[in-house]
């Protein structure tokens, strides 16, 4: 890219491509490669913008009837994996973005848990990433954290049990 693009413009475009047009991943890859420079692609704000748009596109309904369509996340797996690239900081930022999104949606039941399950099952976010988020005490990331933690207690219980099973065998 030759012209610098603002984060706001990136967010708007991602929102448009993912939510309004439900565009193919290839089109989104192409747009990102053409429009977003490398340092921006690796930036926390970009990761958050991408994660927010992808997850918003997977949520149907609103208020207490909001539900996640896991297949939407699965279809966007390549997109998330490419830019998160299994980097610890990116995974953490992605989870902060989810926390903020679910907080904005007023914590509809089951949404965060389904997102966590799907992101884990699809190998988009690692066990370490989830554990890092759980332990995070970042003062800038506390809004909605307590409620979010309560919603995913069972996820972390399951994660630890799965860990124990692996170490037992």
Q: Report the top-level CATH class.
A: Mainly Alpha
Count of runs of 4 or more consecutive helical residues: 11
Can you tell me the overall shape? globular
In the CATH scheme, what's the topology name?
Serine Threonine Protein Phosphatase 5, Tetratricopeptide repeat
| Strand segment count | 2
Distance between the termini: 50 Å
Which structural class fits the helix and strand makeup? mainly alpha
The biggest sheet amounts to: 2 strands, antiparallel
Spatial order of the strands forming the largest sheet: 1-2
Listing every helix as H and every strand as E from the N terminus to the C terminus, the arrangement reads HHHHEEHHHHHHH
Please mark out the parts with pLDDT under 50 across 5 or more consecutive residues, or reply none: none
Protein architecture, described:
This protein is mostly helical. It has one domain: Serine Threonine Protein Phosphatase 5, Tetratricopeptide repeat. It is 69% helix and 2% strand. It has eleven helices and two strands; from the N terminus they run ααααββααααααα. It has a two-stranded antiparallel sheet. Helix 1 (7-20) packs parallel to helix 4 (44-57), helix 4 packs across helix 7 and helix 7 crosses helix 9 (127-135). It is globular and about 50 Å long. It starts with 6 loop residues before the first helix and ends with a helix. The model has no long low-confidence stretch (mean pLDDT 94).
């Amino acid at each position: 890219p030759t012209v610098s693009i603002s984060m706001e413009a990136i967010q708007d475009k991602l929102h448009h491509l993912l939510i309004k047009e439900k565009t193919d991943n290839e089109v989104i890859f192409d747009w990102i490669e053409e429009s977003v420079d490398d340092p921006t692609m690796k930036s926390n704000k970009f990761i958050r913008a991408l994660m927010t748009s992808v997850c918003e596109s997977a949520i149907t309904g609103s208020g207490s009837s909001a539900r996640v369509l896991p297949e939407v996340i699965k279809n966007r797996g390549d997109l998330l994996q490419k830019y998160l690239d299994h980097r610890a900081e990116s995974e953490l930022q992605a989870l902060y973005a989810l926390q903020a999104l679910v907080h904005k949606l007023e914590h509809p039941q089951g949404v965060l848990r389904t997102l966590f399950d799907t992101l884990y099952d699809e190998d988009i976010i690692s066990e370490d990433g989830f554990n890092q988020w759980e332990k995070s005490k970042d003062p800038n990331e506390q809004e909605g954290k307590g409620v979010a933690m309560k919603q995913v207690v069972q996820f972390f219980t399951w994660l630890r049990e799965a860990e124990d099973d692996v170490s037992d065998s």
